[in-house]
Amino acid sequence: MSKEELEKKHNIELVLLEIPVTYENVDEFVPALWETHTPKLMIHVGVSGEAACMTLETQAHRKGYQRMDYFDKCPANHVCTAEGAIRLHTKLNVERICKEFNDGNPPENTSAVSSKDAGRYLCEYIYYTSLSVDNSRTLFVHVPDIAKYPSETTAKALEKILELCLEQIIEIDTSKEVTEKNEG
After folding, report:
1. Which ranges in 73-150 belong to alpha helices (H)?
2. With contact defined as beta carbons under 8 Å apart, do 129 and 27 qualify?
3. CA-to-CA dists, residue 11 to 6, 107, 130, 179, angstroms
4. Which end of the chain is more exposed for a tag (fewer CB within 10 A), N or C?
5. What does the pLDDT read at residue 24?
6. What is the rounded CA–CA span in Å between residue 42 and residue 137?
């Protein structure tokens, strides 16, 4: 991704991190990321061999994590350690993001769809963990493997999704400020 260009264009600090794919690392790193950076937006990205296009996940479940991670471990009782409801949804309007992405001259023959099944593995686990912190600013995107979309294409598509998410968050923040001003 064009880190410097995106930071300048949107007046943001873009933090790009690769989190090791273990349940334990997610439990440790994700809450620390939220605490350290207090992000305006948290987008997690995972590669899916099944994804045919950019797949924006709408929800994540707390239970059902039975697949072993890199260290051959599962969470205790197959339940995410983060506290929250059985299922958490992002408050970002994923359908709108997909529509605006697809209608707005998407990069190099890419497209975006929404999904309600993040896979009950580490991708969904990390998504649930972040949603439990703040579901108004969290998204998970499954990207196709490199055989479907080259890295540069995926990066451009993620940049577009990032921009569409930021637009929504700015709209939400602006409407909150107006409401608070009118109530005050």
Report:
1. 94-103, 122-133
2. yes
3. 8, 23, 23, 24
4. C
5. 97
6. 6
Q: Name the phi and psi angles at 4, rounded to 5.
A: -65, -40
Q: Are 174 and 17 in contact (CB under 8 A)?
A: no
Residue 45 forms beta bridges with which residues? 141
Contacting residues for 129 by C-beta, under 8 A, at least 6 apart: 26, 27, 30, 31, 80, 81, 82
Q: How far apart are CA 54 and CA 57, in angstroms?
A: 10
Active site residues: 57, 123, 142
Tell me: the pLDDT tens digits for 109-138?
899 999 999 999 999 999 999 999 999 999
CA gap 135, 133 in Å, rounded: 7
Residues 125, 114 contacting (CB under 8 angstroms)? no
With beta carbons less than 8 A apart as the criterion, state whether 39 and 15 touch: yes
Degrees (nearest 5) of the Cα angle 103, 109, 113? 55
Q: 152: which residues sit within 8 A by CB, 6+ positions away?
A: none
What is the average pLDDT value for the chain, to the nearest integer? 94
CA angle (127, 133, 135) in 5-degree steps = 65
18-40 mean pLDDT: 95
Burial level of 164, CB count in 10 A (0-12/13-18/19+)? buried
Examine the pLDDT at 169 and tell me if it is beyond 70.
Answer: yes
